[in-house]
Amino acid sequence: MTKIAEKNKKALQIIVELLRNTEPLIKTKLVKLLFLIDMKFLEIYGKKMSELTYVRYFYGPYSRDIDYLLTFLNAKGVISYEEHINSDGKTYYLIELSNNEKYNEVSKSLGEKERKIIKEIADRYSKKDLSKILEEVYNIPKVKNKNFGEEII
Fold it and tell me: Locate the Antitoxin SocA-like Panacea domain: which residues (predicted)?
């Protein structure tokens, strides 16, 4: 396991559990759902669920470690993380689970309260249009009141 993967074990588990509860997601939506999971957990339990640090970036909250974690999970055969080009010629990344046995192993140590919040966020947002999610996330005071590059949570 790489240093970044080792440091972010809980985030790996959250990504896998989130994908278990959704259809394939584009990367931007996955990142925002991870942020919303951490915000909800922080609101209820006073700490983030993951080890990720989110900063204000081009499309709102972002953690650089997410790219490494997705690449790691893809290399391990747990997820499929593929680049696509839409009809406008823009690149996007589609992420989905690819191996049931492997993802069960990765997410097995999540607790019931963690799974509940992940499912709640997945149910509420995974089918919602990305523009609506971005609008909601951008209006969260912890996001809105930060400058580009500043840490949010």
Answer: 30-135
